[in-house]
Design goal:
This protein has 6 helices and 5 strands; from the N terminus they run βαααβαβββαα. It is α+β, with helices and mostly antiparallel strands.
Length: 218
């Protein structure tokens, strides 16, 4: 069950979920919404943080750090190492991605790293299973950077009904047209580092964002 590759291929596949559930998964697992995400679009980041009520940068860093931690707690953020969402903003060459897409597809064809451990992956699975008992998927990780036809994965897991288990190594068929279409659409469109503009984010999650900001400031 060891993974001895810096950027091993990872494949995830499960039944589609409702758009409502998909957006809730993204809301709680996308670091950008709580100030932990990365983007080269600095203007977009500034506009979002102003809408969300983040403290202005500068001043007492310890107070700002305390505020951010309180905001995460009030927002219900789930900190994930390898299975986080990167749909709001992403510097990945393929554009925004994550295990649950905004349309409800549960699939991922990516590489985990650097040097991921099974303990780290299983910690993510535990958090996801506890928070989203309606979610079901299989996850496989290879011992090399390409899935290809180099044999079965090093380890596979099945998550369902609020728990997960290690299963027989399983090749997951995720390199299909919907994955390729999603990748190419993100890669080719203007502003591909983000999925939404700030007004759309406010429309979807504004109530939760502003409630968390008020709680952090109390």
């Amino acid at each position: 069950m060891s993974i001895n590759t810096k950027w091993p291929a990872a494949r995830l596949r499960g039944p589609n979920v409702s758009i409502e559930n998909a957006l809730e998964f993204i809301r709680r697992t996308d670091g950008f919404l709580v100030g932990d995400g990365f983007t080269n679009d600095r203007d977009f980041e500034i506009r979002y943080k102003r809408m969300a009520g983040f403290p202005e940068e500068g001043g007492d860093w310890s107070e700002r750090w305390k505020w951010l931690n309180q905001f995460k707690e009030k927002f219900g953020h789930i900190d994930l190492e390898h299975l986080a969402s990167h749909w709001v903003a992403s510097t990945y060459i393929g554009g925004p991605d994550g295990p649950v897409s905004p349309s409800g597809k549960v699939l991922l064809a990516n590489n985990f790293g650097k040097w991921p451990s099974t303990d780290e992956v299983e910690a993510d699975l535990t958090k996801i299973a506890e928070a989203f008992p309606w979610l079901t998927f299989d996850l496989s990780i290879w011992g090399h950077t390409e899935e290809g036809d180099e044999g079965p994965p090093s380890v596979s897991w099945h998550l369902e009904g609020g728990s997960w288990s290690v299963i027989e190594p399983k090749i997951l068929q995720v390199s299909e047209p919907d994955v390729i279409t999603m990748f190419m659409t993100s890669f080719s469109r203007p502003g591909r580092e983000r999925s939404w503009e700030v007004p759309q984010i406010e429309e979807m999650w504004g109530d939760q964002i502003k409630a968390a900001a008020r709680g952090a400031s109390a």
